[in-house]
Amino acid sequence: MGMSKFVAYVGTYTHENSIGIHVYDVDPNTGIFTERGVEPINNASDLDVSRDGKFLYSIEDEGVASFSIDKNGDLKKINQANIGGMRGCCVTCDSKRRYLFVGGFHDGRVTMMKLNEDGSIEGVADGIFHQGVAISSHDRRLDHPKVSSVRLTPDEKFLLAADYGLNQVKVYELDYENGKMRLCDNIHTNLDSCPRAQKFSADGRFLYILGELTNEIEVYAYSLKDGKPDFEQIQAIPSLDNANLSDLSSELVISDDGKYVYVSIDGFHGVSWFARDEKTGLLTHKGQEPTSGYFPKSMAVLPGGKYIVMLNHDSDEMRTFIVDHKTETILMMNFPIKINKPNSIRIVEIP
């Protein structure tokens, strides 16, 4: 990987023994993580790093918090702000650091928060509570709005708020000048899917939505038609062979080269992976393996694509695996990294 330096930020739940966001030096050639410190914060369940790599934003019990990232990759807290609702679940910011977007799992609220030039959070600009109930065949999870992830479209004209409880992804048109969101579309995911995670391909042409309960990846072609977003489902593929209701697909990531998609699966205690056709966006299942731990909530592909790291939430550890796509296998490497209740990871290149 040349002379590049990489740092990983791992958010944890702090109701037991952890105290916040763990900071690691990462060697993508060996998959080795070396801890350098912990930044105190309450229940950093989700993180996002600004596109310029200067700031990190985190969910916390008090709302959201901002941190500066120095030239070595260390964190320093700037401020925190209330989000105007119950505790948040997920967070993302736009590439120009104008606004921070927060999804609330407990109250079904999407919040748009103004950011200042110095990286600090000014406060709430707009907030919308989702309403309604889902059509469900059997499951109690689909009983009231629960925003499980927020994601900007690649052109950043729209915000996608996946609602686990309503079984849909709401699409908001963004007014950056006035700090407003306007509902303009709904993506109705498959019956009882409980959309959990969503990712766009790097070229912006395809959207991948992971259903927790159906254990499916729904693939959508994305385009603009007369300035309006258009999503067409082109595939729905099981995230796991012989899946059942207790498997519960959790996180979806795409490799930097766009050739592979990985899914962490709670109840299976493992990972499943797919080859991705870059022209058509379609997926082909290639393998699945347990990850020697319990309930992997999140994961990441290390730069270069040689390794993946799994956050085994309930067994309080991270584990790295080397990926061999020729033999379609993964092999655990290095010693497990002990960390209490890891839940979110971001790997950043430090110039």
Automatic annotation (TrEMBL):
Transmembrane segments: none annotated. GO terms for molecular function: 6-phosphogluconolactonase activity. It comes from the Bacteria. One of its GO terms (cellular component) is cytosol. Pfam families: Lactonase. Belongs to the cycloisomerase 2 family. This is Lactonase family protein. It comes from Candidatus Weimeria bifida. The lineage of its organism: Bacteria, Bacillati, Bacillota, Clostridia, Lachnospirales.
